[in-house]
Specification:
The chain is of the alpha/beta class. Helix content is 41%, strand content 11%. It has a 7-stranded parallel beta sheet with strand order 3-2-1-4-5-6-7, with helices on both faces. The longest helix is centred in the N-terminal third of the chain and has 27 residues. It is globular and about 85 Å long. The model has no long low-confidence stretch (mean pLDDT 92).
Length: 328
């Protein structure tokens, strides 16, 4: 090899080795592990990062939780983003649904809460909505039933005179070690609640919705990534994401937007009513934030997607709020 060619090559190798020696020295001087183990707090107030090992009876009641979920979002100031609107939130008695109902009211919307049978939770949500100065209607029933969905919408329109936003949020979740453990009755319950209920509520609501109205569906990170022990639930959440996009295309000419939020782990009754106590304690630790989210950290995303002043040019998206990078 010619001397003129070898010299630049040797110079480059020397430079690479010098960088390597420098980094090796830093590595030796560094602590044994730089792995992040503490929970990340990036919001306006610190959130709980230790969960009780509690197991709740289905369907799960927020009033029975040892650590009550946070839903009030005290740092969030309303600015009339939903002023004069009428909304329905299914599964609105607790968890994400309750937090959404409170912020919708803070933004100026009346709220109808659709729930299964958790009366005490629903009344607490109603009181929180009314404390924001808005009306709240409680509607008890089963979103798997067409007649109920139609009655729920009719009662809302009669009470509020209009319908501007539907939040499909009601869900059933139960873990299983393998698909063979999930019988037909459970498949039917999961599918008919999680995706069938969304279809029925949307079908009942759409005839009453006008230009500027919107539907916001609750998807899940399990619909994006799957979940080893939530096979049927993950399947419904993937279906919800596809339903969101398909319906968005179907109703866009009517000026109605359809979007979804895909939450990661959130501290709601749904999970301690599913998981074993030991798994509840670890819930959310797998995220990049190293902790579970509180409902009040999800609810602003629903306001954003529901409000025509914020998301008037957005439809058919699945917004991941998962506490991790590379959610999609």
């Amino acid at each position: 090899m010619a001397k003129s060619a070898a010299t630049p090559t040797r110079s480059l190798v020397a430079r690479q080795r010098a960088i390597q020696r420098s980094q090796d020295a830093r590595d030796r001087a560094a602590p044994a592990s730089r792995k992040k183990t503490r929970a990340v707090q990036a919001g306006d107030r610190a959130q709980p990062d230790t969960l009780p090992g509690q197991h709740l009876a289905k369907p799960g009641r927020e009033k029975d939780m040892a650590l009550r979920p946070r839903y009030t979002a005290p740092g969030y100031s309303g600015s009339g983003k939903l002023a004069g609107f009428a909304s329905i939130v299914t599964g609105g008695d607790s968890g994400i649904g309750r937090a959404v109902a409170v912020l919708f009211a803070r933004e100026g919307a009346d709220v109808a809460i659709v729930y299964l049978d958790e009366d005490a939770d629903a009344k607490e949500t109603q009181a929180a909505v009314e404390a924001e100065g808005r009306r709240c209607l409680l509607i008890r029933g089963d979103v798997r039933r067409t007649a109920f969905c139609e009655r729920a919408v009719a009662r809302t329109v009669k009470a509020f005179g209009r319908l501007d936003v539907l939040v499909n949020n009601a869900a059933f979740q139960m873990h299983a070690e393998q698909l063979e453990d999930i019988d037909d009755a459970r498949i039917d319950l999961t599918l008919q609640t999680n995706i069938g209920g969304y279809l029925r509520m949307a079908r009942a609501a759409l005839p009453h919705m006008k230009n500027g109205a919107s539907i916001v569906n609750t998807g899940s990170r399990t619909g994006l990534q799957g979940s080893r022990n939530l096979i049927d639930y993950s399947a419904t959440k993937g279906a919800i994401h596809a339903f969101t996009k398909a319906l968005a295309l179907n109703v866009i000419d009517r000026g109605i937007r359809v979007n979804a939020v895909a939450p990661g782990p959130v501290w709601t009754p749904l999970n301690p009513a599913d998981k074993k106590p030991a798994d509840v304690r670890k819930f959310g630790k797998e995220t990049d934030f190293k902790r579970v989210a509180q409902p009040e950290e999800l609810s602003p995303a629903y306001v954003f997607l529901a409000s025509p002043v914020c998301a008037g040019y957005i439809t058919g998206i699945v917004l991941p709020v998962t506490g991790s990078v590379a959610a999609i």
